[in-house]
């Protein structure tokens, strides 16, 4: 009888010892077959995204129930209506800062949702436990002081840690979109805006409930005072604190991988700075009105002014980066000579989109916007290659971006050329043709168009 292969001895080699499996010779793989290792369930992006959405949704439902329980339905609706007022202004400010290289909207939605749901829930639970511990550890006469200690020393640590988690997650899992200080500040600011939104609902709703307890006679003093302090006077407070954390992560993103210690210490220093600013702000609220105004005018306003200057400078620095690193691709033949100048001007970008819209409609304008986005990403990728922070996928990412430019150039390049004509030309000495000075991008070879994904010559 023909034996099953599982009972045959190997063709060569000694017989296996008792209890061991026979060592069969390896069978050749079929032609065209390639081994694909099994991926863990968590490695699936859809699974991770679904789990994250579920987590944020659950946090949102719990927050909704907690806030409504504290404020009542009417107080919740009033708090929601008033708390939403500063949100568009803050989001627009951070989006303006991010216009040079806009972040994917999914990242921004995640940051806002994390701040409004997950970070707020963490803060409510942790602050509640800390407050109970403080109140149970002090005498009745010292309980007002315990509340001040909690607001000054406990709440800043808990809240800034919760908000920093969103920045850390995007820093770790969306590194392609997290490259510099602007990215860190924008993500941190959007996260803090979401946190402040939910917190304002709670404070304003409680203030309205307090006014209701005194009846509907007269002006709702508590609601008006809370609205003035939190919405009109200090809508930037939470974003200001958390942008220090984002600034730390943004600086770390620009460092070379070999500087591992600094890439850990600088974000921690940013988080610590955020906690200190938050602590100073909360502590000043327990002082006299004059002392609070002094802290506000002499400390918080200058810090806010410095951050505003940094935002403007960072945006201009991004445009300089484009103007510095894109000429490499112009010299190699990927871009036309006017493009680096046009792409480094926000005004020329807008004109190019308008030109494309007039000549080809909304689809052409969208194509030009995509071309601008890919060219900007290419410039920043080139900068990271020069700084040694591009990563092992630099070549593949560069070829991908060049392919996107190549497929859109027939629409985008004429519009950018026309837009560049509206800009002042760079100064060129008499008798010399235009030539870019030696630039750092010359240290990294640029493939010509015939070597890239475009058609061969």
Describe the structure.
This protein has 457 residues and is mainly α. Helices cover 70% and strands 0% of the residues. The longest helix is centred in the C-terminal third of the chain and has 42 residues, at 346-387. The model is unreliable at 1-19, 21-27, 427-442 and 450-457 (pLDDT under 50).
N to C succession of SSEs: HHHHHHHHHHHHH
**Major β-sheet, in short?**
none
Shape: elongated
Give the terminus-to-terminus CA distance. Answer: 66 Å
The percent range for helix content is: over 70%
Total E-strand runs: 0
Q: Tell me the Rg in angstroms.
A: 29 Å
* SS strand fraction: under 5%
Q: What is the arithmetic mean of pLDDT?
A: 84
Number of helices: 13
User: Which class do the helix and strand fractions yield?
Assistant: mainly alpha
Low-confidence stretches: 1-19, 21-27, 427-442, 450-457
Oligomer: single chain
Topology:
Elements (H helix, E strand, L loop, with lengths): L44 H39 L2 H12 L7 H33 L5 H31 L7 H33 L7 H13 L3 H17 L6 H25 L4 H37 L1 H6 L6 H5 L2 H42 L6 H27 L37
Helix pairs in contact: 1-3, 1-5, 2-5, 3-4, 3-5, 4-5, 4-7, 4-8, 5-6, 5-7, 7-8, 8-9, 9-12, 12-13
Quick description:
By secondary structure, this protein is mainly α. It has helices spanning 45-83, 86-97, 105-137, 143-173, 181-213, 221-233, 237-253, 260-284, 289-325, 327-332, 339-343, 346-387, 394-420. It has 13 helices and no strands.
Give a quick set of tags describing it.
457 residues; mainly alpha; 13 helices; disordered N terminus; disordered C terminus
